[in-house]
Amino acid sequence: MVSCRFRTGFQGGLAACLCLYQCLSVWQAISLAGPVTVPESVLQAESRRIAVMQQAAPAVVAIFAAEGNGGGSGVLIDASGFAVTNFHVVQGQGGFMKCGLNDGRLYDAVLVGLDPTGDVALIRLLGRTDFPHAKIGNSDQVRAGDMVFAMGNPFLLATDLQPTVTYGMVSGVQRYQYPAGTFLEYTDCLQVDASINPGNSGGPLFNASGELIGINGRISVEKRGRVNVGAGYAISINQVMNFLDHLKSGRIVDHATLGATVTSLPDGGVVVAHILENSPAYRRGLRRGDELVSFAGRPIRSVNQFKNILGIYPKGWTVPLSYRREGERHDIQVRLMGLHRRAELIPDEDAPPEEDPRRKGPEGPEEKDHPAPDDHSPEMKPDLKKVEVPSQYAHMFVERREYANAYFNDQALKRVLSGLSDWKASAQATDRWMLTGTLNDTQPVDLRLLPDAVAAKIGGSFSVQKLNEDFQDIPSGTGGLLGALDQLKHFLYDRENYFSELYYLGSEPLPGSQQRVDVIITTKQLMTCRWYFRRDKPELIGFDASLEEDADPCEIRFEATIPAGKTVFPKILKIRHGDADWGRLTLDALQFLTESKTEAQK
Amino acid sequence: MTRWICGLWLCLGLICAAGEPTLAAEDVQDVIQTVQSKVVKLYGAGGLKNLASYGTGFLVSPQGHIVTVWSHLLDADTVSVVLSDGRRFFGQVVGTDSRLDLAVLKIDADHLPCFDLSQTAVVGPAAPVLAFSNVFKVAVGDEPVSVMHGVVSAKADLSARRGRYQLPYRGWVYVIDAVTNNPGAAGGVLTTRQGALLGVLGREVRSDESHVWLNYAVPIGELKGAIEDLISGKSRRQDPLANLPAGSDGGYAPIDFGLVLVPDVVFRTPAYVETVVEGSEAEKQGLRADDLIVFANGELVHSLRTLDAVLQKLAPGDDLQLVVRRENELISVTFRVPRKK
């Protein structure tokens, strides 16, 4: 070890001697004054810190994998037991796991949702409705220099279920860390010098007031093996919150892409290098060579900033984008495409290991840069035995393709659709609808929604969508209004049996507004609809119907509703397609037809 | 004695820590931003196993003088310098000082934020410090470099190496408890919590005695004179003659013959002549910069180290025969080994 001795030679020696001399006099002063007293302010700061940590600790989860095969950490985010952790902690653990809290108890927990790209997983602890949980902070307000603390289960030391605390400083914010392996890209993340180690993965990063600002998940390692060397990374809690309802949907959720790649110019600008012609951004007018000004409200000055922003949003969110072409600024709203094809996200048990050579065992955070060749961490074993399923909770795990746990999707669907009773059950309703009203308060509109066709008379012009053919853009320029209305009919009337797919997606800001809405997805043939529901009460407020995957939807928003049986029916429909409003359809009457005669239903 | 001084420092440390004015979070953030604006990201040679092609430096003049650690990074023809605002420049090596492991670069810019070398600080053990660097090249473009916090664990003499590379610097250093011994950190700065410059983060080396990786910074006071000399042009390239330790014993060095060889950066650095000291024996013998020494007293010279081994065996009055390659020519010269000064 280095010797604790002062160099007394020439050069620097003189300065050191002076120091030593000064120090001597200080020391003498102390010895005269008696024992060292610590100022009150220091003691107060210390007891404040201890109090904050004690307050935070009950929400920290120790996750133990089956058969002592590693584990990790997590953090409770609400009283019902939802807890966030890393994807790489729960990966391969099956539907159930055991989790410990600092009350000394071991709880059963069930897998809820997975975000392989963001390295996030949602689990739910069971057996209580009053779980302690962390206060959610705002990671956008974190600055380099903030003091933070991590809690968790490093090196799986928490066998007494008391979390380990490590204290440190935020080294950087809005960091971008390249994907490790196929997934696990860390975007817009927090870099800390608090010691994050294998086993801390999935655990909370708290700010000095004990608010949850991040999920620890990754460290830089190099020559000293898989231990912390001063650079750890936490997924920002704001990103996690963007995905939270998606994760609660029980699905394996996807991240987003703009459908374009960008590159930086020598002068610091960021321009579009390539753009897919089937991307929404292209349809909104973005082209190769355009300079990005801002994205999702944040200025773009580097490629990393662009990737950072992209990484915090789920597939399908609509965000504002501003670009400059020939000096002129354009502001557009872009729906983000999925980063992966659906099949890519489904865990393939038989996948050859080289597909994701850096996939690690559940114990450790993913490392970046230099994979240690002498890494002894346990690799994931595909034949890992699962935790014995607790019989009283067995119904809470439902395996289904593309889902982490379909049970939670079924529950969410029930909740969101609770305000929409199935009309088929009502005696009056039939699947032959006649609607009358006006378009833009001027043209009379007459609509027939029949089992084999949708027909419309708008003003003086007729249009028909035959239902034994693909849905088309009818009337032209609406994005397929007649098809959309047909889907609305089925969504209200017989959704359970009609759609080939019907699931709860999660939540997103309603395009063009700040209102966060619950989203249900349906598909029928090539037609996909996104149904938007208020979150405070289960009320359908509109939907988007796309004729095919890469088409601008017919966007329909309900401006007023009328009661119809046990539910409501839209009275005023605002219709929009592409970049333009198409019209405002006011419905005066809905009638259910039988084969021959009409049965009025106001 | 040693223990007594350690104890003394501990006491002082407590005083320092207690006397440290507690800074509000905003103040620390401001300090950090100010320091980050003076730190630059460097990209140069490297990229081979365990040799990072990136590093850190800091501005010491508004005209773009940058101090960094003298390393393999600078072996590239040009070193790319990225300022905290994202602007990219090509840096020229103004001068190096191999004994202090120091290099000064210059970029063509003006009105840059910089450290004032007349406003530096010295602290004792237990003083809280901040370390800034582009460790692991986490930051790119205009992203601020990483900051770590820690305390000075000790002020101590340094004897360290990496592999067969012996760190030339022999003075005292700040040993710190923040993990700065990482790729890219060398050339970063150590400051007080108020942002006053304390030292330069050193390269990745291990202690000679314990073989642990050392987290340390070379005090700026030890480097200041050399930095100023390099900037003013008083010593354009390294001038080891001026820094030769008095009465060094055992063997000879190339400089004893008037030769300055290239820095020993890799396991087998070829023995190229960097410069020939004016008026020296080597100049009289007609040796020139860029000559490659291939034989010494009949031994094949693989690297600087084999040459060193030959020189170590010399005694005054011996002959030293060197064969150098210049272009496609082999030139043989013979020195009479001088008496050591």
Descriptive notes:
The complex is a heterodimer of chains A (602) and B (341). In chain A, strands 23, 24, 25, 26, 27, 28, 29, 30, 31, 32, 33 and 34 form a twelve-stranded antiparallel sheet that branches. A six-stranded antiparallel barrel of chain A has the order 1-2-3-6-5-4. In chain A, strands 8-9-10-13-12-11 form a six-stranded antiparallel barrel. With 602 residues, chain A is of the alpha+beta class. Chain A contains nine helices and 34 strands. Chain B has 341 residues and is of the alpha+beta class. In chain B, 18% of the residues lie in helices and 32% in strands. Chain B has helices at 2-19, 25-36, 220-232, 240-243, 281-284, 304-312; strands at residues 39-43, 54-59, 65-69, 79-82, 88-97, 102-106, 128-133, 146-157, 160-162, 165-166, 172-176, 189-192, 197-201, 206-207, 216-219, 259-261, 273-276, 292-296, 299-300, 319-326, 329-336. In chain B, a hairpin with a 5-residue loop joins strand 2 (54-59) and strand 3 (65-69). Chains A and B meet through helix 1, helix 2 and strand 9 of A and helix 1, helix 2 and strand 8 of B.
